[in-house]
User: Fold this.
Amino acid sequence: MKQYKPIPARKELLVRLMGGNLTMLISVLLTIINIVIAVTMSKTQFLYSLSMPYYAVTWGKAIDNNFAAGGWPINGRYTYIGIAIAAVILAVYVLMVLMSRRHPGWSIAMMVLFCLDMVFLFFVGIFLLENPASIVFEVCIHFWIIFILSRQIWAAVNLRRLDAIEDMERRMEAEKKEQAAKASDNEAGM
Assistant:
């Protein structure tokens, strides 16, 4: 007979599930802040953000300014196209966070999309940036978020298992009560 590992308490699983969701929401929020910073020509950037939406906006801004050296003061059509692309990507992340509470498949999809974001970051860092070492810390943060998302997926799957076990126990208890009621009716009828 196969022995299963005990399932952690529901509270611990919910904390892990909410931890992954909160991590992604913070990452989305910091990405929005980074996009606002990029559009307003500031030189700072938060590292705890998504790279695809950020680079969509910054590349649009670079195209609008003909990749000129120095600052890029113009926000034109391509900047706004980049903002639209970023908004769609960020909306998909928020949708996945909201839906991951109901089904673990959304958590898996969120992690896959985040892994694509990390592959994109590698591509940008290796092939397009002058100094690829500048993304090392950001890659480390991406790995940490992937770890958190994997724990979220594990928690979501175990929550579903726990729900199934509790449902099965309730049905077995109801069947026992029903059998006891039938047995008492049979004894009363004799």
Remarks:
- Residues 76 and 145 are 33 Å apart (CA to CA).
- The radius of gyration is 25 Å.
